[in-house]
Each structure stands twice: as C-alpha cells, then as structure tokens.
Amino acid sequence: MEFSDLILCRRSVRAYTGELLTRAQAEPILDAGLRAPNACNLQSWHFYALIGADAAELLYPDVYAAPWFEKIGMAVVATVDDAALRERFGEEKGTSFGIQDIGAALENMALAAADAGFGSCWIGAFDPEACRRKVGIPRKRRPVAILAIGRPDGTPDLRDRKPKEEKVTYICSGRDFDSVYSHA
Questions:
Q1: What does the alpha-carbon distance between residue 24 and residue 165 come to, in Å, rounded to a whole number?
Q2: In this model, does residue 32 exceed pLDDT 80?
Q3: What's the pLDDT at 178?
Q4: Per-residue pLDDT for 182 more than 70?
Q5: What is the C-alpha separation between 123 and 96, in angstroms, rounded?
Q6: How far apart, in Å, are the Cα atoms of 140 and each of 36, 45, 165?
Q7: CA-CA distance, 51 to 76, in Å (whole number)?
Q8: Where do the structural domains in the chain lie, given as residue ranges?
Q9: Four-way CATH pick for 3-158: 3.65.10.10, 3.30.70.100, 3.30.1390.20, 3.40.109.10
Q10: Is pLDDT larger for residue 10 or for residue 79?
C-alpha cells in the first residue's frame, strides 16, 4: 500500500469483530513501534502487549470502560520511564520528551496495524493506577496511553479535518511559498 493511502486508511476504530491477533500478526506492529524516533535514542518506552481475551479481561471495565473494548484483538499499554531524560534535560523537557517518544511509537504501531488490515484506537482517557495494578506495571514506569488493535467490524467514515489554512502557517524567509520551491 502506498504511504499516502495508508495515512487515509488509518482510522480510530471503535467496533471490532473479536478476532484475536496471533503473535505473528502482533510482532510486526510492535516492531514498528520500537523503530520510532525517540529522544537521544534512550528508548524511554516499555510496551505491555495484551493479546486476546487477556486484554479485555485485565483492562475492561476498571481501566477503560467503553463496551466496544471487549472485542479488541490486542491492547498495547504504552509506559514511559523518563528518569534518564529528566536527568539529562530537566523535569519539564525530560517529561515532554518521554511523552513524545510514546506518541511516535504508537503512531508507528497504528500505521503498521492499518497496513496489516487491522484497526486501532488510541486511548488516553483511562485509569492509569488501575492499569498499573491490573497489568503489574512497576512504579518506575508511568502508563501513558493504550492502543487497542483488532479486526474492524466495518469501516469507520473518514473524519473531516479543519482546513489547512487554519492549521498551517508557512514561514518562508520573507519570500512567498511558491518562489521558495520554484528555485529549488
């Protein structure tokens, strides 16, 4: 699949068939996350891959209570240990870099899942302490997000985005955009 098609194919899926992912299906998705860019290559992340019924049984409803979650094929709990980043860059920047690391990794996983014919949904509104208890996450790792993955039950509509003119500002050293690129 062309990358431009993959970007449009990736959607937030909230309806799954209940088909479980095999380890062979899960591995390339997780590998894509591990290849993500990250601050100083410190790889501050740690992922807990809950495959099949374990995902729903461990996380639903105490960690995340949406009914559709019971039919996912895999959940990836993304955690960060940003101590080295905070030591190197200070509290604020180190914490921010750890969150950015997780974001890059989860987006890679979401795209890899879409490329393999799976859907995903990035979950940030969950109970991190319940997640820590249920999954057995040590204190040094902070749960940041969950990526639900599974075989979609239907195809969600492509959601509109705000116009580019509202969300992008071009800054081109005092020249107009077209002249900058017409001389390249």
A1: 42
A2: yes
A3: 67
A4: no
A5: 18
A6: 22, 11, 42
A7: 8
A8: 3-158
A9: 3.40.109.10
A10: 79
Over residues 126-181, the pLDDT tens digits come to 999 999 999 999 999 999 999 999 999 988 777 888 988 899 888 877 666 666 55
Closest C-alpha to 73, from 48, 52, 96, 101: 52
112 residue type, one letter: A
Residue 19 has which token pair? 């088909």
Q: Which residue has the higher pLDDT, 77 or 176?
A: 77
Question: What is the reported pTM?
Answer: 0.89
* 3-state SS track over the chain: CCHHHHHHHCCECCCECCCCCCHHHHHHHHHHHHCCCCHHHCCCEEEEEEECHHHHHHHCCCCCCCHHHHHCCEEEEEEECCHHHHHHHCHHHHHHHHHHHHHHHHHHHHHHHHHCCCEEEEECCCCHHHHHHHHCCCCCCEEEEEEEEECECCCCCCCCCCCHHHHCCCCCCCCCHHHHHHCC
pLDDT at position 121 over 70: yes
Residue tagged 């991190």 (tokens): 128
